[in-house]
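seq:
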Amino acid sequence: MQLFQIVEDMLGMYQRRTRQAVQDALQAQAAVVLLGPRQVGKTTLALEIAEHHPSVYLDLERDADRQVLSEPDLYLDEQIGKLVILDEVQQMPDLFKTLRGQIDMRRRKGARTGQFLLLGSASNLLLHQSAESLAGRVRYIEMPPLQLDEVGSDSLNDLWLRGGFPDSFQAASDPESLAWREDFLRTYLERDIPALGPRIPATTLRRFWTMLAHSQGGLLNASALAGGLGVSGQTVGRYLDLLVDLMLVRRLQPWHENVGKRLVKSPKVYVRDSGLVHALLNLGSIEGVLGHPVVGGSWEGLCIETLIATAPTGSEPYFYRTAAGAELDLVLRLPGNDIWAIEIKRTTAPKVSRGFHLAVQDIKADRQLLVYAGEREIPAGDGVRALSLSAAVQHLREV
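struct:
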């Protein structure tokens, strides 16, 4: 337990909302897959949960821990009654068939829930590996970086500048935070991505990532990106798929229902963590961000990631734009089929455009919100509420 206590002392300053979701899932399912990029806090959360259960922890990036599972059934038979935590489980794809057998055997013995907690940092790869073997036996949960209602609304600017990776957010100073994010980017480019198999020059992928940061929140223009990199459009698609799979970039899809209008069909692309946007653009202070052309896109990306992470499980995020100019930055279809139309503006004078009202009519939105940089919640006309990001989070938590 000494390792668990050290980890909790180092990074356990904030109560992560994902923890309750994981605990609830372990009480309902045999296996839980916790997804999220590296350094987001998955291991810390898992070890905190392990303190309250008989458990074992294996990091499958370590040769010694992989060796423990060289005869997986023999080892796992000895762990019945314990929560088995397997970190970076995508490193051993053949293990999923064994886990299926273990889960079924334990169910026959009456142990139906809370058997395995699997951690992974490559979502599509892990989902593909586990989907067939563990169908009906597993629940998937994505762990976002630190969220506004976890760190407090007083820390909004720090969260925006530094992003939500715990080590970056908790750094002693802005320069130390920026240095951590530079190391994070370098580690992904030079070690983590090559370990997944793709042979992409680190300098090329860094340029691509930086180009995405410059156009934060813009429509995907694969041909322009390809021209800037000197590669094909197909190659750009492969680079983008990789960063999306690693949960570092979001491809926000357009609203697709037929509303009788010419809809924009290209997705919008966001670097998901605002701190990484700023590191890619070498913006080390809030003043630097405010004076840079990316300020609007960066703020929009922060708000969108926050609201998507806050929305109830099963919510579907989109944006809406027509050729005639009707536009919504974020559309959330909630599990009960309520539709929320959300506009995001980096301003202290909240006002929505005619295009917003047209879009609201097109999609028949049930709620209309304008998230702005002020603190007060005020009506903005025609049923629109203008409110702060923290207030918008609270509204979604109450759904």
